[in-house]
Write a structure and sequence with these properties.
single chain; 449 residues; alpha/beta; Four Helix Bundle (Hemerythrin (Met), subunit A); Rossmann fold; 434 Repressor (Amino-terminal Domain); 21 helices; disordered C terminus; binds guanosine-5'-diphosphate; binds magnesium ion
Length: 449
């Protein structure tokens, strides 16, 4: 999980709060001290961490809890609100309204621009937009091939000129084509530092391209130094937002996020791995609730939505409503889960489950069990998948043999299927949906899901 260290430290401090017999000045002081230490260990600037924790302390001691909240819930809520504000509060997503919406990526060498161009291309492509990428990095010879390859992987159109040395000429050559697309993502060259050469180059690109968004790509591993960098780019090239990359691989991520949040531009996306799917909208509210183990259903649903095509989802939804649910649907669901991400990542986003700390081996077991199910399902006839009730005695044995699994494993699959069918039936009416979500929130269902 992103910022695992910071998250587990914050969760530990909240656990102390839960354990305390009552909440008084000492408890609040200890709590804010813990939070401060946790933030500083994630390279958040000391002064920023101090002023945040002072604010939490002041509010926790001065404000009376609302009638519906216990003193504990009240304190947790203050921490949640202040951390969210600390990371930039509510914000607008980039809107794809104008056709084409042109997004220029800029930043230093190795910050992750080109990879991010590929990720953004896939991000918008998955949401149904027509996307093109443009390589204007004529400084590094390998940049052309890198983005061409990523664009192929994302299945979007790529524009670039391998031999051209002038980025402006690349844009001029293809700009009349851009109107065919909803989103055009333009990569640019970096330098070791923001020097006059880079500023001039970005300004020239900017003048010709007239992008709607100018996003600075910044690597999370520079921690709090991100503030200076973000501010410098903001002042010289007028960025409209920031993408913080490599949040998966550094203990300093908290520092870089906090630092970017106080620069003039706000963080719009974060990237959390090397694969094309490893990008998400940065929404401080959701991010903080995940960090504190309160779950982030919205991001999970967004991911699930993009994993299932609308048609499949509609069909599955219809079947569920009609109470029809067979092993083919289960199979599709397993495939979807594979696309959404490993179970560990999913459980972090389900409210209540993040904090539950599901044992690692339980998740691994669940994942390997799913593989077994897939093998078993591959050995079934279409009729059996369509109507699993007919799978009895000799069929179980045949399926077990055919898939190289044990009879017990095949029976386990059928049992699981029956449980899921029951759970799915609950989704039929809004009231039942509520009940389902409640159980989901209490962490009762997901592991059987
Ligand atoms: N772990 C991880 N690596 C990343 C991420 N984003 C980029 N990278 C890696 O960072 C390196 C530099 O990326 P690149 O896009 O070429 O940077 P550029 O010079 O700014 O274009 C590559 O090895 C990428 O795979 C991320 O979110 N997580
Ligand atoms: Mg590059």
């Amino acid at each position: 999980m992103v910022l695992e260290n910071l998250g587990s430290k914050l969760k530990d401090s909240l656990k102390k709060l839960v354990k305390a017999s009552h909440i008084d000045k000492n408890v609040v002081e200890e709590l804010t001290e813990d939070i401060k230490k946790a933030l500083i260990s994630s390279d958040v600037n000391v002064k920023l961490a101090e002023s945040l924790c002072d604010k939490i302390k002041r509010r926790a001691l001065a404000e009376k809890p609302a009638k519906t909240l216990t003193a504990r819930e009240h304190t947790v809520n203050i921490i949640y609100e202040e951390l969210t504000r600390f990371l930039g509060g509510e914000r607008e997503e980039i809107k794809i309204e104008k056709k084409p919406t042109i997004i220029l990526l800029e930043g230093l060498f190795g910050s992750g621009k080109t990879t991010t161009a590929g990720k953004l291309a896939k991000f918008y492509k998955k949401r149904g937009y027509k996307v093109a990428t443009v390589q204007t990095d004529t400084f590094r010879p390998a940049a052309y091939d890198q983005l061409k390859q990523l664009s192929k992987e994302a299945d979007v159109k790529f524009y670039g000129e391998e031999k051209e040395k002038n980025p402006v000429k690349v844009i001029k050559k293809y700009e009349s084509d851009f109107k065919k697309f909803d989103v055009v993502i333009v990569d640019s060259a970096g330098r070791d530092a923001l020097n006059s050469e880079l500023i001039k180059e970005i300004k020239n690109i900017d003048k010709t391209l007239k992008p709607h968004e100018k996003l600075l790509v910044i690597s999370a591993d520079i921690g709090q130094a991100a503030q200076k960098q973000a501010q410098a780019f903001y002042d010289t090239t007028g960025i409209t937002g920031i993408i913080v990359t490599k949040l998966d691989g550094t203990a300093k991520g908290g520092g870089s996020l906090a630092a970017c949040s106080i620069s003039g531009a706000k963080v719009k996306f974060i990237t959390i791995g090397e694969k094309l799917n490893d990008i998400e909208h940065f929404k401080p509210k959701n991010f903080v609730s995940r960090l504190l183990g309160m779950g982030d259903l919205e991001t999970l649903l967004e991911k699930a939505k993009e994993a299932i095509s609308t048609e499949d989802a509609e069909e599955a939804g219809k079947r569920l409503m009609e109470g029809k649910f067979n092993l083919n649907d289960l199979y599709t669901q397993l495939e979807t889960m594979k696309k959404v991400g490993p179970l560990k990542q999913i459980t972090q986003m389900v409210p209540g489950m993040g904090a539950m700390n599901v044992p690692k081996d339980a998740l691994q077991k669940q994942e390997s069990q799913m593989k077994v199910w897939k093998f078993a399902m591959d050995s079934m006839t279409p009729e059996e998948r369509e109507n699993p009730d007919i799978i009895t005695g000799s069929r179980v044995e045949r399926i077990a043999k055919g898939s190289g699994r044990s009879v017990q494993e095949v029976r386990g699959l059928i049992k699981q299927y029956n449980q899921m069918k029951k759970a799915m039936k609950m989704l039929g009416s809004p009231k039942k949906m509520q009940k389902f979500m409640k159980m989901f929130g209490q962490g009762k269902l997901p592991l059987n899901f």
